[in-house]
Amino acid sequence: MCEDTINNMASKWVETLREAEKTSIIQDGRRKIHFTLKDGTELAEEYDTRNNELVVRKWRKKSTLGSQGKWDFEVGEQLAPRNLDAEGLMESTSNPIFVRTDTKKAFQWRIRNLPYPIETYDVRVDAENRCVIIRTTNKKYYKKFTIPDMDRAALPLSQSSLSVAYANNTLILNYEKPKEILAQEKILQEEFKKMKAAKDGDVECNPS
């Protein structure tokens, strides 16, 4: 597929972000960008300044009454505040924790607190329903999830792009990013570089 075609397929999402109101700040080693889309939806992204890898992507929509809703994490996770009074007394949860943590070349998901060996897991792409499904042969865990980036670009899903690994009670899924997504990310990074980013302490930035 030629580069012009790839860029055209990526252009719709790029234009959506170009047209959004946005602010940028460099803070704690991250470039934090806050977008307000035309419909009022807020998008906040954080990139590691060392390698431009996406660390956080989260969304927030206003409720039907106009109040601010909670952030919904697409990439990364909400860190729980530390309870100093109870520190050392609280037990860590044993429930599986599902978090997306991307790399440069792949969408990545980590499911922590899964104690079963790798042969227990059946991970498949459901191309027709545009999702990934995780099952265990012991019927102890089931998860179905989408890849929003692929949906936004209207790209098909493929089983051959998916790989699975397991270590330290964590199931790790990688879905190789197609050329269209890599081209889209390259375009957006160039756009972000054009933005004037405040340094931490210079200005107050929208929450991100």
From TrEMBL:
Pfam families: DPCD
Protein family (similarity comment): Belongs to the DPCD family.
Name of the featured protein: Protein DPCD
Organism the protein comes from: Lingula anatina
